[in-house]
Amino acid sequence: MSGGYRQQPGASGGTTRKDGKRVAGKQAFPPPGSGGSRPKMSTRDLDFIPESVGGKEPQPAGSHIHDRVRTGTSVGKEMPLVDSNAKVTGQAWYGDDVRLPNEVIGKILRSPHHYAKIKSIDTSRVEALPGVLAVATGADSPHRFGVLPVTKDEHAMAVEKVRHVGDLVACVAAIDEATALEALNLFDVEWEVLEPVFDPKKGLEDADEPIHWRGKYHLAKTNVQKRVFQEFGDRSLVEKPHAASHGKWNMAGVHHGFTEPHAVVAHWDPNGRLQLYTPQQVPHYTHRALSTVLEVPMHQINVIRTFVGGGFGGKSDPFPHEMCAAILSRKSGRPVRITFDREEVYWINRGRHPSHIEVKMTADEDARISGFDIDALIDGGGFASFGHVTSYYNGVLATAPYELGSFHYTGARVWTNKPASGAMRGHGAVNTRCAVEVGLDEMAETMKVDPIDLRLANLLPPHSRTISGFRITSNGMREALEKVREGSNWDDKFRQLPLGKGIGIGCGFFISGSGLPIHWDPNRFPHATVHMQVDMDGGVTVHTGAADIGQGSTTAVAQVVSEVLALPIEMIHVRSHESDTSPVDLGSYSSRVTFMNANAAIRAALEIREQLLNAAWEILGYHPNNLVLNDRRIYYKHDPAIGVSYLKALHKAQEDKGALIASGAYRSPPMGGVHKGAAAGLAPAYSFSAYVAEVDVDVETGLIKCTNVWAAHDCGKALNPLAVKGQIIGSCHMGLGQVLSEKMVYGRTGHLQNPNLLDYKIPSVYEMPHVEPIIIESCDPEGPFGAKEAGEGPLLPILPAVVNAVYDAIGIRLRDLPLTPDVVFKGIEKALKASEHEDPTDLPSPRLTHGALQPTLVARAQEHKIRDKARQRTEDTSPYVNGVLFGFDPTIPLEDQVEGWRTATEPDPEQLAELGLAGRAWLKKEQRHMEGEN
Amino acid sequence: MVGSEHIEMIPAPENKIWSAEVNGTPVEVLAPSNAVLLDVLRDKVGTLGVKRGCDLGTCGCCTVMVDGAPRLSCLCLAGQVEGASIITVEGLADGAHLAPIQACFAEYGGSQCGFCTPGFLISAQALLNENDTPTDQDIACAIDGNLCRCTGYQQIIESIQGAAAIHRGEVAGPAPASDPHPDPHPEGPDEPNMPPGHAR
User: Fold this and answer.
1) Which strands form A243-251's sheet, in the order they lie side by side?
2) Most buried among A134, A433, A835, B160, using CB within 10 Å?
């Protein structure tokens, strides 16, 4: 083999036969490279090999099951994203960059009415326009689809009625954009305008014509899409509170604001297969929806995910324009490209729900949190989208990281005649989290204690169960709080800064991968599957359906494979663009990719590794237990000079079967309770975060400037610290936008007034504070090398941190987001009136003198710190359920210990009168229970 | 855009030959006389690295360098820059050699989803051409017309500072990205570079 491979045919060295025919010669071909540019094998990078297996990497949170396959190759090292060179050279191909030969341009006719019935559509004038190749209307797409199987309520184009301005009515394909735009003017549509609903509060009432009709499950004649009631714990604890907080919040809807507008290219190829190019976070759902809408089996559709120019949840629904492109392409026989302008992006929306949230909380005389009462009314817009899940997340994701005496949640999502809300980074958890964290701050103030100590003394430990039954494994909350307290110099600043300067704390808790795959039974199919193949050249091809939307999931998958096989990362090639070649995957949502796909990839890589070691065993005669795999070489552990190169071992392993193939899968363990909605918010791991923000508030103008953020996030293990820091800083940016400037403005007439990036205020470089990202590694027992999510959780704490900091600066609690200068200024004016000051610069700045409870809290936090450390390192494996802090025995079910311990998913009749705003949905009956009443 | 009456479109403008120097190469394309530079670059010249984000001059994704100065190609008629020298993101690298600014965006995490990256690269390069010792404030000033939704700008500023250091000659520039690796031990090294017993 030393002479290198010789391969036929080749271009060089060929000879010409006597008859003049050219014969391919044997071309000297560089041998299959083992990759990398390092001439010598390097010693193992002990800094990146954990202590428990002989390296130097400290393991304060304990060891991990994957430690034994750590090779020090790439995990934990800062690396550029594997596709970054494509991005910096302009070669990354996004949706609109797909240009197929003979393409035509598609355009969509959109509704000018908020709510109207379509009486007729006449397309004859459109069809007569020269250059128009295909026209389609709702009649071409009778089938419903939707991202959740339980709420399929969308059509490719309006079938019976339009539900918001900008809803799809018809579409047209023409030879160029000008013709297509002109064609849109030629549709003759007869409308019957209906009475629209804009205010979600009105949506709770009966309407003449509800926006959707769910038959016997429809709630009276309201526009309520989903209602939730949950009550856990001992409600008697809240009766005589020592301290309480009560806040009513009004949060505006925000949009993802990704820079790439939606675009899609559809092409029915000559074999009758649909090739659909789309920037999708969740190509598989689109795949399913296409199959339903087009009445074509899934295997006749190839969904090709282009590079995604930002998703943040906004590209995770199957979209009607994707169906339109496919329909137009089928009709015209040519590739159809549809690209949105920015206004259309806002019309399709799926941003964060505008919310009315009310939070009441109480604490007892030991400063234990005896109750959280949350009521969330969320404005879903015209379609269900992910709303079913959002309705739950608004409540259940607020149940941790604190130990609660009781929890009470009522939520409702209503349809209104506005663009549909959906999933956005921090799905459903962001708004209530903000309200809850600000409430804690307020309670700390009434109790005269430090809000960080209040939190530290009420945390759930690692390996515990929340009040709603979530299984918490690793938990870095305490460390995160300690780190930001130290980093920000909190103890010298809090309640001590002058007027206009403030500092605030906020925490976060988020799922790392939804525990329930929406489309199938988790007991039958795994959550994620990864295929892997190693050919003679030594390169490893990894097939996964995980959608890289810029978060670096491809890099994460490549890194874990590189780590296990001890190969340089440039030898790992991740193929994730096409549904034809990648295994079915649920895609990039609920922060599942690192956790689930990397776990599946590790399993596949371990299988390859085993085959390589077995081959080396045959060559060297040493059992795999005594062999070390490191940097393209396998050697005897006690004498590294005895060894075999990676390629030799690979070729030995390939002798019988050619390429090495392996497949790995991940499924989450069985978890959670049995009550209705128990699956919402279940995840194999949870991330935790704590931020401290510093703000300057100009008391004369109400302008807030966030100056510094200390951002600690527990991501289990940072596979790529560079990417994790990028996610943390980026989350701060997005959260700051929501809390300070971003807002979808609907006018009196219900029109969206700012569907562009000029009036929709995304923070620019000037509005960004300095962010100090602090990575906390709690080493999750089930995460890949201990990793958990870092993409969504880091967004949650920035909102309450800023709101609390504003209070610290000016002593005013503001509960209308975003805190634009007019909102702040109104607050200041009100405070001036109340305090009879004239000049805003005379406003008192809040101060804190510790009360009697402070030492109690500090002592309890200290005690819990020791408890948590032992539990984190699994030195203490006793069960711990929410409630132990209140004196319950974790080994006996709480229901058996306390009379009145409730787990309820429907309100008792006597509760009905006192339910909050969203809770009023429970006053209505479903149609099936209303016989004879209509 | 919606109505039952047929509104006559403005008569189609006549097509004219538009010529300029794009990324060092003279180009001549046939384009409508009222065409926007962004459309000409994307649809006629084929430099798809120039991105369309908003069409309103608000996102900066379409920034190109026109005679050395950054300019929003969505707000610029092609006719206005007839004959100019235009550099797009495709023109930054020298063959396989990434420009320092490109290498640094990759290395420091200045690019996540990558859609805004071409615009940032042009804005940053234009700054570095003028000033190789920029302060963070200078950088903020240069990129304040560019929106990035992923990174929060911090790593972008670090990337630009990194590239400035290369421009000043303080740090070695990037190695060519796509050169074949010279690998004298293609099968993996036979001699381990470590003392026996070191490995565990």
Assistant:
1) A816-817, A243-251, A355-363, A369-381, A406-415, A224-234, A901-904
2) B160
**In terms of domains, do A601 and A729 share one?**
no
- The answer to whether position A790 is within a domain reads yes
* A536, A504: one domain: no
Please report the pLDDT score of residue B187 as a whole number: 52
Indicate if ipTM > 0.95. no
A44 inside 8 A of chain B by CB? yes
Q: Are residues A638 and A543 in the same domain?
A: yes
**CB interface of A with B, residues 93-112, below 8 Å:** 93-94, 96-97, 99, 109-112
Residue B197 reports pLDDT greater than 50? no
Predicted TM-score of the model (pTM): 0.92
Given an 8 Å threshold on Cβ–Cβ distance, is B151 in contact with A733? yes
A595 lies in the same domain as A742: no
Sheet holding A501-511, edge to edge: A501-511, A686-697, A704-714, A770-776
Nearest-5° Cα angle at A662, A657 to A666:
165
Query: Average pLDDT, whole number, for chain A?
Result: 90
Domain that holds residue A631: 531-666
In a shared domain, residues A757 and A816? yes
pLDDT in tens, A239-249: 889 999 999 99
**CATH code of residue A733:** 3.30.365.10
Q: Please report whether residue A421 resides in a domain.
A: no
Is the CB of B48 less than 8 angstroms away from the CB of A99?
yes
Residues of A in contact with B140 (CB under 8 A): 765-766
Decide if A90 and B61 are in contact by the 8 Å CB cutoff: no
Bridge partners (DSSP) of residue A636 are A627, A639
SS3 A297: coil
Those of residues 15-74 in B touching chain A at CB distance below 8 A are: 47-56, 58-59, 61
Out of B4, B102, B109, name the one closest to residue A89 (CB). Answer: B102
Contact A31 B186 (CB under 8 A): yes
Q: Give residue-wise pLDDT tens across range A753-776.
A: 999 999 999 999 999 999 999 999
Segment (H or E) for B158: helix B154-167
A142: in domain: no
